[in-house]
Design goal:
The complex is a heterodimer of chains A (535) and B (485).
Chain A lengths: L2 E5 H8 L3 H11 L1 E7 L3 E6 L9 H11 L11 E2 L4 E4 L9 E8 L5 H16 L8 E7 L7 E6 L4 E2 L8 E2 H7 L1 H6 L9 E5 L5 E4 L3 E2 L12 E7 L3 H15 L3 E3 L1 E5 L2 E5 L5 E5 L1 H8 L5 H10 L3 E5 L2 E6 L9 H12 L19 H15 L3 E2 L5 E2 L1 H6 L9 E2 L10 E2 L4 H10 L7 E11 L2 E11 L5 H14 L5 E4 L5 E11 L2 E9 L1 H6 L6 E7 L1
Parallel strand pairs in A: 4-15, 5-8, 5-16, 21-25
Antiparallel strand pairs in A: 1-3, 2-3, 6-14, 6-15, 7-14, 8-11, 9-10, 11-12, 12-13, 16-17, 18-20, 19-20, 22-24, 23-24, 25-26, 26-30, 27-28, 28-29, 29-30
Chain B lengths: L3 H11 L5 H8 L3 H13 L3 E13 L1 H9 L2 H9 L3 E2 L6 H13 L2 E4 L2 E4 L7 H10 L3 E2 L5 H9 L3 E13 L1 H11 L8 E2 L4 H6 L6 E2 L18 H15 L3 E2 L5 E3 H4 L19 E5 L6 H9 L14 H5 E4 L4 H10 L5 E10 L11 E10 L5 H14 L5 E5 L5 E11 L3 E4 L2 E5 L1 H4 L8 E7 H9 L5 H4 L3 H6 L9
Parallel strand pairs in B: 7-8, 9-13
Antiparallel strand pairs in B: 1-5, 1-6, 2-4, 3-4, 10-12, 11-12, 13-14, 14-19, 15-16, 16-17, 16-18, 18-19
The chains are: A alpha+beta (535), B alpha+beta (485).
Chain lengths: 535, 485
């Protein structure tokens, strides 16, 4: 989850409340404050559904409402500006969506710059799906001359990328620039790359990879040009989040005219979306009892525009909110404003009977029988490897489920048998007194289907066939399994000392003296007998 | 079988000899040989071996001198009389005494003259010095602080001395009886009660050899259920007591049931390769037009949906279930009529590397209630009840976020010594989740990772211990606590 660094002084100024009040109420707004409060700041995690809180400006905006200091829809003025962005049809095949805006008269403080950088990174990660869906560029507009053009250019086009002194082609940027290498995969297979140029063909940005060095933002920068590009209308959400955050810092938003084959439009579009919600529905979901007035007032504290309209409530959702998909999303905010701690936490009246799953009941009895025989239960991992399941067991691999991207060579598949896992546990416990008798009951996956198995193993200098035969017979008897015991060809056992358990004509298990090659394969040095059985 | 010398040693021990030196003297053996035999007897459970290491104190050369002449400060005190100018105290031993006499408060210095203060307490250090004058000994009866002080002054040194104590077990008596045959003594006293003795009634005329019942016997390792399994069972019982029906499902699930049915967008980060174990296999899907419509346009719930194009091919991709919710939603889809109270407690899989606090598989508990008129506030009530039954009586609720619930909440429980600890998550299933399956009443859901809870309740520092068990830990973990209920 994105972590936002909040400087107390900065936040206190923006919110108009003390650090103590803010820190106390933050978690109840839906934030996870780490255990550590630093001298001048705190790092706070916000949930992925609220990208508008990925910066201190957004947090302050929400907090003023939550504390009742400044409720209702935040108003932002977008002035008409002269700047035009031409969108060339060539970008359609690469990165079709672009939004842009100009912010003027900024006076950056250090926390403000840090906050903007963090916001950009967190939006790339969250909404942007690591820049694939959304990438944001921030530029010093004084270095370039409008109108601007967004087009797809030949990879041989050269410019000086950010943090470099010499020009390189876009192809070279992907090969040599650290950002290029990190994000080249997004443009893989594209014959032409996206590019934003000014009227003198100077480069603002090579989205979604890197800006030009020319428009680098400096301490003395006052006017910003912001571009957001991507593959999805969520681009406009990201643009709204960035421009409103900067407006909270005192910036003036100036519209940019986007001109494409489809026509003209002016961005950013900060028109709130309008919803009409039913307080009765809110009450039946949350379990409080609010009239239209009260619901509207709760929502205003969450910075929605809200007013009662007869028995309903009209809600204006700010253009920077990316999480409102359904009326329930609005009701959740009302519940937060009301306070989870103020809800009447009462048990539901639903009356039903408890019912254990038959397999769980059965497994409890299997455990009882094995523990009664003196076996100690273990619960090995179900993820294992072909090496352990088949090679070391001298068995042929069959019908097993392999994972595509294992975490290590030891965890490449889901077990088809439990016995190998028991042998691994024995090998980890060789420094402890013998005899050791262990068992496990659990799931295996055979042919993609989950089945239930039991396995046991016994290791000590006198472990022999009669011991495991007795144990197997006892278990079969206790579980009323009408099994037939026949000689086994299983390579895991010493020839002539392994048996198959046949149930209704099919092999449902096996037991015997483990083959010396199996024993030594698992690094063991004492005789082992074992059993495996479907349960 | 015992060797001849082992048997001799065992006999000596059974006869009451306790330490290797005495046994060696008695049997004319070397002490090392006696110890070797005793070790072997110990391994066979015939004797108990108690090894103790004690610290032996002795005087250094300087200490030895003072033990005869008195500590420098004592010598100095005797020299002082009514008072002596410091300039006259030239003797090296007396000079050593100056610092100590001041520290002990036996004298004061005024105008360069040292006078006794009249407060001379009998020194524990002097008593220790005298005690050690008789030769090296252990610390019993000596003041520990005085010993430490003298060691600090370099007057006393210490060294370790090991000693062994042997005691026969019940098994030893049986062994010796077997060796010597039951003739002789058995004619008058009974060692082992036998069917013949019972049948003939001969036991009435005999005496039973008394045993030392205070001796411990061989340690047994009973078969047991795993402590973690017992915790899972406890949680299962709580859910059953609260009227929930247990459900189970497959480890291998389609992305459809694991993600899509829960309204997780197909480009959601949680679905990426680095977090989920994907399989190469594809599943057959039920009719998924409702889910497709929901993802793309929000169906008829008034939701906006995610937009874009929902792919059935992506949904068919199989995974190892990343949460038990895959099982729950399938069950609800099959049982859309209220009321439903169901729970699942089973293993789930996340693509995590193994370390002390992460394992790629762990248990999750999840419960749902679907019924007419149940509310989010009811969910909070349910959570309070559940955690209280688990032994957590203080619970608080913080807003949370989960992709398939709205509203969402993160319950925190108070644990002494740790403070508020986040334990699980909960919420009401989104309409986008329930609507495509014809579930028309609210679904309250909550879940928690049981292995994390196990760390807290079993006091584990390392999660791996649950799965890669140390058998000694299992043998040592009691199954219940006397007086603990």
């Amino acid at each position: 989850m994105p972590v936002v660094r909040l400087y107390y002084e900065d936040l206190e100024q923006m919110v108009g409340a003390s650090k103590e009040t803010i820190l106390e109420r933050l978690p109840m707004m839906g934030a996870d404050i780490g255990k550590r409060l630093e001298e001048d700041h705190v790092d706070v995690e916000f949930f992925p559904d609220r990208p508008d809180l990925y910066c201190s400006e957004g947090v302050a905006r929400a907090m003023t409402g939550f504390l009742g200091l400044n409720a209702g829809l935040p108003e932002y003025q977008v002035s008409r500006g002269p700047i035009v962005m031409e969108v060339d049809p060539s970008v359609r095949a690469v990165r079709p969506v672009i939004g842009c805006a100009v912010i003027r008269d900024l006076h950056f403080s250090d926390p403000a710059i840090e906050s903007l950088m963090d916001l950009q990174e967190d939006l790339h990660w969250g909404l942007g799906r690591n820049r694939r869906k959304v990438a944001i560029g921030v530029h010093d507009i004084s270095q370039v001359r409008p109108p601007f053009r967004y087009l797809a250019a030949d990879p041989s086009f050269r410019f000086v990328p950010l943090d470099f002194q010499d020009s390189m082609s876009m192809r070279e940027v992907l090969e040599r620039h650290p950002k290029g290498r990190a994000f080249a995969h997004i443009l893989e297979g594209c014959p032409r790359y996206p590019l934003i140029l000014d009227s003198d063909d100077q480069v603002l940005s090579f989205p979604p990879i890197i800006n030009g060095e020319l428009t680098r933002v400096r301490d003395e920068t006052r006017d910003l040009f912001i571009d957001v590009t991507g593959t999805d209308p969520v681009v406009f959400k990201a643009l709204n989040i960035v421009v409103t955050a900067l407006a909270e810092r005192g910036g003036r938003i100036e519209g940019v005219t986007l001109r494409s084959q489809e026509g003209e439009k002016v961005l950013p579009d900060l028109t709130p979306s309008r919803w009409v919600v039913d307080p009765a529905e809110a009450n039946s979901l949350i379990g409080f009892d609010l009239g239209p007035e009260e619901l509207a007032s709760a929502l205003q504290r969450m910075r929605f525009g809200a007013r009662p309209d007869g028995s309903m409530v009209e809600v204006l959702v700010p253009a920077y909110r990316a999480d409102i998909m359904h009326s329930w999303d609005i009701f959740e905010d009302a519940a937060k404003a009301f306070g989870y701690e103020n809800l009447k936490a009462e048990m539901p009246a639903t009356v039903t009977m408890g019912q254990s799953h038959p397999l769980s009941t059965h497994r409890s009895r299997v455990r009882e029988s094995l523990a009664g025989l003196g076996y100690l239960e273990v619960m090995p991992f179900t993820l294992t490897s072909e090496h352990s399941q088949f090679e070391l067991m001298r068995r042929e691999p069959c019908h097993y489920t392999r994972v595509l991207h294992p975490i290590s060579e030891l965890h490449t598949m889901v077990r088809t048998d439990i016995l190998p896992g028991l042998l691994e546990i024995l090998s980890m416990n060789q420094h402890h007194p013998l005899p050791q008798r262990i068992f496990a009951v659990g799931d295996v996956v055979v042919g993609g289907r989950t089945e239930s198995h039991l396995a046991s193993a016994s290791i000590h200098s006198g472990a022999g066939f009669s011991e495991v035969r007795s144990a197997a017979e006892a278990v079969l008897r206790e579980l009323c399994m009408p099994a037939r015991i026949v000689p086994s060809a299983d390579g895991a056992f010493i020839p002539g000392r392994g048996a198959d358990i046949m149930l209704e004509g099919r092999r449902a298990g096996c037991f015997g003296e483990l083959h010396p090659a199996v024993i030594t394969g698992f690094g063991l040095e004492q005789p082992v007998v074992g059993m495996e059985l479907e349960t | 079988m015992l060797t001849e010398s082992d048997a001799k040693v065992l006999e000596a021990i059974a006869a009451g000899e306790q330490d290797p030196k005495a046994i060696a003297d008695k049997l004319g053996m070397k002490v090392e040989a006696v110890r070797a035999s005793a070790d072997s007897l110990g391994e066979q459970g015939l004797i108990e071996v108690k090894k103790t290491v004690s610290e032996i104190f002795s005087l250094t050369g300087e200490g030895e001198a003072y033990s005869r002449q008195g500590l420098p400060e004592r010598q100095l005190l005797e020299r002082l009389g009514q008072g002596v100018p410091l300039s006259e105290l030239r003797d090296p031993t007396l000079k050593i005494g100056i610092g100590w006499i001041k520290k002990k408060g036996w004298a004061v210095i005024e105008g360069g003259v040292m006078r006794p203060s009249g407060h001379v307490s009998a020194g524990e250090d002097e008593a220790v010095l005298q005690a050690l004058h008789g030769g090296p000994r252990d610390a019993s009866g000596l003041s520990a602080s005085a010993l430490a002080a003298l060691k600090g002054r370099g007057l006393v040194t210490s060294s370790e001395q090991k000693s062994w104590l042997y005691r026969p077990t019940e098994k030893a008596r049986a062994e010796l009886a077997a060796r010597s045959g039951t003739a002789g003594e058995a004619a008058v006293t009974i060692k082992q009660l036998t069917p013949e003795l019972l049948k003939s009634g001969m036991w009435r005329d005999r005496r039973f050899t008394p045993y030392d019942v205070t001796l411990s016997a061989e340690r047994l390792f009973p078969g047991k259920i795993h402590p973690y399994q017992r915790l899972l069972e406890k949680m299962r019982l709580i859910m059953l007591e609260m009227g929930f029906a247990e459900i189970r499902g497959d480890i291998v699930q389609s992305s459809f049931w694991n993600f899509d049915a829960l309204f997780q967008p197909q480009d959601h980060p949680a679905r990426e390769m680095q977090d989920t174990f994907y399989l190469s296999t594809k599943a057959d899907l039920p009719d998924c037009s409702g889910v497709k419509e929901m993802h793309e346009r929000g169906g008829n719930t008034g939701s906006t949906g995610w937009g874009g194009c929902w792919s059935e091919e992506v949904a068919r991709q199989e995974v190892l279930r990343t949460h038990t919710t895959a099982v729950t939603i399938k069950y609800l889809a099959d049982h859309p009529e209220p009321p439903v109270k169901a729970f699942c407690i089973d293993r789930v899989y996340r693509r995590e590397s193994i370390d002390a606090t992460h394992t790629p598989e762990f248990e999750q508990l999840e419960g749902v209630i679907m019924d007419r008129g149940v509310t989010f506030a009811n969910l909070l009530g349910l959570l309070k009840e559940f955690y209280s039954k688990m032994g957590f009586h203080q619970v608080r609720f913080r807003p949370g976020y989960f992709p398939y619930t709205e509203p969402s909440v993160e319950p925190e429980v108070w644990i002494d010594g740790l403070g508020w600890v986040e334990l699980g998550g909960a919420g009401v299933f989104r309409r986008e989740v329930t609507a495509p399956f014809g579930i028309d009443h609210p679904v309250l859901a909550w879940g928690l990772g049981v292995s994390r809870l196990a760390m807290l309740t079993l006091g584990l520092k390392d999660l791996r211990l649950l799965y890669q068990s140390d058998l000694e830990w299992l043998r040592d973990t009691p199954i219940s606590v006397y007086g603990g209920h």
